[in-house]
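[agent] plan:
  1. take the single chain provided in the ticket
  2. run structure prediction with default settings
  3. attach structure tokens to the ticket
  4. add a short note for the reviewer (M.T.)
[agent] executing step 1
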Amino acid sequence: MIFGEFRCEEAEGVTLAHTLNLGAKTLKKGRVLGKDDIALLKQAGIERVTGARMGEGDLDENAGAAAIAALLVGPNTETRRPYTGRCNVHASARGVLRVDAARIDALNALDEAIAVGTLPDYALARPAQVLATVKIIPFAVTRELV
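[agent] step 2 finished; step 3 output follows
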């Protein structure tokens, strides 16, 4: 991933680092800029944007979070759609959560780009309750980490 300032002419495919209010339209942080967005930026007089361009071996933050969350799914648990680099694992039935702390610690030790949090071991779980969350801190993570 390359993070920095990009001239608008070169910004197609860049993930915005900050929300930009263009008056009639707002381009939110995390949006991948397309041709129409570039035209709006130019129309608003914006020459440069700050963001991230994914490399060939990168997964965007949502894909990375979903891939890691899928590793945590077990009986009576499920993931939901990732958003803003976060993917939650929910209970699909009432029960008692068992947490493999060594596994969670190992995931957290992989790289500072990855953060995994869970409820405590033996926590009572109810359907739809969030049991764990995976967060990818930057806009992308390398495939080899996942």
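[agent] step 4 note for reviewer: The helical segments are 35-43, 61-72, 101-110.
[agent] ticket updated
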